[in-house]
């Protein structure tokens, strides 16, 4: 089922409002930045998708990431170094000005962030685009279940 149609058909008014707000943030990002300067961070799509694969990642996370990339035909750039070094390399190598991130307000690194937030001092400069910053845990699950979106199996084991 198409995501937009599933959300529109939902009786969950809160989900529809959160979804509309997230779509607005995405549209604003594309209005502010040229297409080639935007990346999608993963925690037949021409948008660059980046994944920071760490040696300590659960195998389920890696499997889910690569299965999702395959399912949706995403052009994946896997970075196998620490996050800061990998980000520095990515930003030097590619003309990336903004990165879509799945940060939510309750996340430890979300303090002080807004829907558009520059990177933190001491980090390479880029704009963090947080379309679901105002989403709660409940909102995420409502979206996933309403839209029948696949998710990592670790969630079924109690991980968040």
Automatic annotation (TrEMBL):
CDD domains: FAD_synthase. Pathway: Cofactor biosynthesis; FAD biosynthesis; FAD from FMN: step 1/1. One of its GO terms (molecular function) is FMN adenylyltransferase activity. It is an enzyme of class 2 (transferase). Its EC number is 2.7.7.2. It comes from the Eukaryota. Keywords: ATP-binding, FAD, Flavoprotein, FMN, Nucleotide-binding, Nucleotidyltransferase, Transferase. Residues 90-160 form the Phosphoadenosine phosphosulphate reductase domain. Signal peptide: none annotated. Pfam families: PAPS_reduct. InterPro entries: PAPS_reduct_dom, Rossmann-like_a/b/a_fold. It catalyses: FMN + ATP + H(+) = FAD + diphosphate. One of its GO terms (biological process) is FAD biosynthetic process. This is FAD synthase. It comes from Aegilops tauschii subsp. strangulata (Goatgrass). The lineage of its organism: Eukaryota, Viridiplantae, Streptophyta, Embryophyta, Tracheophyta.
């Amino acid at each position: 089922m198409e995501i937009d149609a599933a959300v529109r058909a939902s009786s969950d008014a809160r989900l529809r409002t959160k979804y509309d707000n997230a779509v607005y943030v995405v549209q604003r990002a594309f209005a502010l930045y040229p297409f080639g300067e935007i990346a999608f961070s993963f925690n037949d799509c021409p948008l660059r998708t980046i994944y920071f694969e760490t040696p300590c990642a659960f195998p389920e996370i890696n499997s889910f990431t690569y299965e999702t990339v395959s399912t949706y035909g995403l052009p994946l750039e896997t970075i196998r170094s620490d996050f800061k070094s990998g980000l520095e390399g990515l930003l030097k190598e590619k003309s990336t000005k903004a990165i879509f991130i799945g940060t939510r307000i309750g996340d430890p690194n979300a303090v002080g962030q807004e829907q558009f937030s520059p990177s933190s001092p001491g980090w390479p400069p880029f704009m963090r685009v947080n379309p679901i910053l105002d989403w709660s845990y409940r909102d995420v699950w409502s979206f996933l279940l309403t839209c029948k979106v696949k998710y990592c199996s670790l969630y079924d084991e109690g991980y968040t």
